[in-house]
Predict the 3D structure of the following.
Amino acid sequence: MVILVYVDPRGNRHFDCGGSLINNLYVLTAAHCVIETEQRRLVNVRVGEYDISKHIDCVRGVCNPAIVEVQVKESIFHPQYDDDNENLHHDIALLRLNQSIELNGYVQPVCLPLARASPPISAEELLVVSGWGCTLKNQPSNIKQRLSIRATDHETCVNRFASAGTTLIPSQLCAGGEFLHDSCKGDSGGPLMRQSYRGVWYQEGIVSFGKGCGLRGWPGVYTRVAHYTNWIQDTIRP
Ligand code: 4AZ
């Protein structure tokens, strides 16, 4: 997983979103994380991060290599993403990095689901979401968090969000909806993953939005990655 680095108009750097490494050169994230606003412009991607507050991250005497920060060379939005549309359909973007990322025991690309070959996600299936977003203290976390949440039956989720005036489409995926167990502000762009029976991690969703965070009956909404693997394959280049 990566964390996206932005600069504000005064030149101060801050974090706001996550992303995932899908190969040496590309990061997958949410389109709404890449949109330039008055407040922020995406500049870098930080790889190998765990605890933002520490220069070198160690757990029980075992330390990982220092973080690597690389420039975003190109931001590629999904052609159907429309920033003016509140439903956040097609909330997916690719970042081409300025230099190739060296992989190690702590930095590995995540697998993408093949639409034809991977079993559909069933309701109640356990998925894992991760990020540095807001925790119960309502502040972003220095330490990368992860949480298991269950996929929500799609129709149930469509109806729930329709009641709030939000239209969901099949290329969106809902998960969570349990009290206080949710992704939240700052987790956007990060991965929602499924572990295959072989133990391999696949990215099934991208954190997109929700109605608040951690409200019972209001699952988080994710971009359904399997619906976009053709676009990803057609868009990335050597
Ligand atoms: C956000 O504001 C956000 N519970 C992201 C995800 C969710 C809610 C809010 C999903 O970035």
Remarks:
- The pocket of 4-(aminomethyl)benzoic acid is lined by residues 182-185, 187-188, 207, 209-210, 213, 220 (CB under 6 Å).
- DSSP finds three helices and 14 strands in the chain.
- The chain has a mean pLDDT of 96.
